[in-house]
Amino acid sequence: MPTAIAVTSSDLVLPPHDRQTPPAAVQPQETLESSLLGMHALIEQHGYVIALHQASGATPEELAVTRRLQTVRSVLESDRIALLGVDLPPLGLALLAQQLRQLSACDFSPGVLASSVRLLAHYIYAGALLGTVAKLDRIPVTLKAHAKSWLPGAQFAVLATPRPQLVRLNVADQEPLSGPEFGTRLLVAQGPQPPSDWVTATLAPAWKVQGAATVPLPEGSVRWWGTGKLVEFAAGLSDVSVLYQLVSSVRRETCHWCGLELIGDRCGFCAAPLREPETDPARALPRGAP
């Protein structure tokens, strides 16, 4: 069975691209006991579990979810559970989970899958169209932008990752929102009070996306962006063969602590950093030393 990919709420589970894409598991359950039983069942069925959660700026509810997952892993005393915090907005996190689900059906080991999270997240362009940035605290907002957000009809295009950017729309000196230089599929989720159709009518053609899909807005998006006047979007790689090539092109190492395969500089399961290559003591001696 493929490695299980878990998320913290059902609204982070996107529809699969095809029948080969495995479903995602939702953790935690309503009580600690149900969470323990659910996680134990996943380990028994899949062998390893990769659970994604919000990394920074989490609400009290999100922090409680993370603590529950940490408690479950501690009680089960299992080294087969990877708890990975990700600095992505909710829709971007849902897209990342979908990509991992696609890759879990390939021949990657659990360690490679877990350590690929940071790599995949770097190639996700996640942002939102906002009617106000007065309560936006997840990315830097200038005092001038705060003041402009009170003007009637103000709109802001905000990119959270991979590089934060805030652009006020419908002004003479409007700058473009930086987009990917590779083919992507765009996911769009409208809030309860969408400001406009700018994302689908303007941003999608400017970014030359290879397709777009409308999905439900994750429950945490309004809190994350600080307003219900939003259209959240996330663009990323969707072709599993391209995702496979991206991950497989990175050199694999063996974790010196738990023995799993990894890519990058840190193990996704035990969080141990990649050990620096040992140098020959003789070569490390200064010139002229005995």
From TrEMBL:
Where composition is biased (Polar residues), the residues are: 1-11
Q: Where are the residues of the annotated region Disordered?
A: 1-24
Report the protein name in the record: Uncharacterized protein
